[in-house]
Amino acid sequence: MADPRGRARALPAALAERLQRPPLPARTAARRRLHAGGRRPGAAGRARRAPVAADLTGRAVRRGGGLRRLSAGDGGDRGQHAGAGPRAERAALPGHRPGTAGRRPAVPRRLSAPPRAERRAAAATRVFDFRRTGEGAHEAWTINGLPFRPGRPLAAPRLGTTEVWRLASDFHHPVHVHLAHFLVLSRGGRSAGPADAGWKDTVDVRPYEVVEVLVRFEGYRGRYMMHCHNLEHEDMAMMADFEVV
């Protein structure tokens, strides 16, 4: 790389590393192989939690080492802190002691056994359509065609029961349910894939897709909320109450 006077100078480390990456088609093909089965990269979805087990055997972890979440400018969540420059949030590794990286951690062969979803155990089946309705000044992000009105529940499940909720979408809506956890039964008419296994409180519903979930209501009665976890949509009140009775 040359400066304005024609003299050669070294590339910045970050740029040099980027230029050494495989070309985009190769990277895309690799990601498709990684997410085989027709699901696009990032199939875990937005606004969802995912437990991760990291085996640090043979890794020299420095004192004070931990996990970092990068923000804008560092290649992390672009736009999360737009305009704020590089920032990072650090979390220490719990229970880590310097000098113990060579010891084999006691990681179980199987971390958990996802429960079996029994559709026949459902007390009811409900449909919730997340969609933009109306025209012009009356356009709104709605659920079942209704704008949000506090205190108007769209469902009244009974405590201690399970229900099948069929979630439909016209856009990309990560649907988050307060209080209740659920198991994904199907996506687009097909059985749930590995990324949908286990108990969830948020599920990624893609444009013109139908996702069926088995929702479990336990713990407390009262009024709770479900909403789209797309920030712009929830800011525009794409949400609804349900009341556990």
Structure description:
The chain has 245 residues and is mainly beta. Among the domains are: 66-102, no CATH class; 121-244, Immunoglobulin-like. It has helices at residues 13-19, 24-34, 231-235; strands at residues 66-70, 88-92, 125-133, 140-143, 162-169, 173-177, 181-187, 190-191, 202-205, 210-216, 222-228, 239-244. The strands form three sheets. A six-stranded mixed sheet has the order 4-3-5-10-7-8, with no helix packed on it. A four-stranded antiparallel sheet has the order 9-6-11-12. A hairpin with a 2-residue loop joins β7 (181-187) and β8. The longest helix has 11 residues, at 24-34.
List strands and helices in order, with pairings.
Blueprint: H1 13-19, H2 24-34, E1 66-70, E2 88-92, E3 125-133, E4 140-143, E5 162-169, E6 173-177, E7 181-187, E8 190-191, E9 202-205, E10 210-216, E11 222-228, H3 231-235, E12 239-244
From the 3D structure, determine the CATH topology of the domain at 121-244: Immunoglobulin-like
Corresponding CATH superfamily of the domain at 121-244: Cupredoxins -  blue copper proteins
Tally of DSSP helical segments: 3
The radius of gyration over CA amounts to: 23 Å
Give the total of beta strands. Answer: 12
Give the helix/strand class. Answer: mainly beta
Major sheet strand order: 4-3-5-10-7-8
Major β-sheet annotation: 6 strands, mixed
Shape: globular
Distance between the termini: 69 Å
Low-confidence stretches: 23-43, 72-86
